[in-house]
Amino acid sequence: MSAPAPNSSPRVSRRQPTPKAPDARTVASLSRLQLLVASATMRELNEDFEMRPRWTDGRSMRARASRFIKPNDRLTAFERLEIYNRQYWFRLLESFHEDFPGLRAVLGQERFVRLAVAYLSAHPSTSFTLRNLGRHLVRFLETQPSHTAFNPRLVLDLARLEWAHIEAFDNAAEPPVTADALLDANPAELRLRLQPHVTLLHLAYPLDDFLIALRHVEDSRAETSNAVAAQQSRRGIHPVRSPKPQPVWLATHRHRNCVHYKRLTVAQFQLLDALRQGLPLAEACELVLRDCFRTKPEHLRRWFGDWALLGWFWLPKE
């Protein structure tokens, strides 16, 4: 099921008698009115993407709306309120649509819309920014296998990578530690921290290449004419071919205001993960040298030099 366009025309009906306006002469009563309007506006739509006909207590929503919304010569109180209710939810669906293009491509439009509606019903927006809308998606998919049934690992890996992309885009960047600053430090006591925008991922599929190619295709489509876009819309959106399984160790990060995916070796991933868990630098290095027999001390020095240039490490102030 596809969501109707946000600017769908509401139904026209006869004008209703103007209800008595609620008392808003005090701060407390105004606050109650604001909460009521917000609750009605942000309430989940029904399966036809319309405002629900009953309020939370089972009473008629039309009667409820008439208590605090005035009708006009074209719309009832219910229909006026429904405009805001629908536009609020369409904006959430639009944001979810924009944040997870990989899931949308793999699932296909109908399954993606079902996922979006189910997820937003279970985890409605509670933040001042839509950036946080998908922060519970990975956990939701882990506990709702019906949305991942055709390929659970692929869907979960995509959700992890696309959320990591969001984190990399706008998470904080602490003052980075330079390579020179590490020369005089005691490795046995030094606990380097990864930047908040860096996420380490072990994926079962090469989804970094998949997402890069997908975003390139979507950017190209955005540059086409309206006629071509309309023709593509009529054809519908079908699931794309999924990438073949291939283990990938990855770091998502931000550099010069752009999000990057950096492939890692198993040894590099293990070293960074040990630091992420809080191990001192010396202990983390010893762990990798012991478990990854092909890794040499000169490899570690080169890796740390590269990662320091990218600004991946920081130290909290004492």
Task: Describe the secondary structure blueprint for this structure.
Layout: H1 27-42, H2 61-65, H3 77-99, H4 101-107, H5 109-122, H6 137-143, H7 152-170, E1 193-194, E2 199-203, H8 207-222, H9 226-235, E3 248-255, E4 258-264, H10 266-276, H11 281-291, H12 297-309, E5 313-314
Antiparallel strand pairs: 1-5, 2-3, 3-4
Helix pairs in contact: 3-5, 4-5, 4-7, 6-7, 10-11
Report on the architecture of this protein.
Helix content is 48%, strand content 8%. It is built from twelve helices and five strands. The strands form two sheets. The chain has a three-stranded antiparallel beta sheet. The protein has a two-stranded antiparallel ribbon with strand order 1-5. A hairpin with a 2-residue loop joins strand 3 and strand 4. Helix 4 (101-107) runs antiparallel to helix 7, helix 6 runs antiparallel to helix 7 and helix 10 packs antiparallel against helix 11 (281-291).
Helix segment count?
A: 12
- Give the second-level CATH assignment, the architecture of the domain at 171-205 and 242-314: Alpha-Beta Complex
Helix content: 40-55%
Helix-strand makeup class: mainly alpha
* CATH class call of the domain at 171-205 and 242-314: Alpha Beta
Name the descriptors.
318 residues, mainly alpha, Outer Surface Protein A, domain 3, two-stranded antiparallel ribbon
Question: Short description, anyone?
Answer:
This protein is mainly α. The chain has helices at residues 27-42, 61-65, 77-99, 101-107, 109-122, 137-143, 152-170, 207-222, 226-235, 266-276, 281-291, 297-309, and strands at residues 193-194, 199-203, 248-255, 258-264, 313-314.
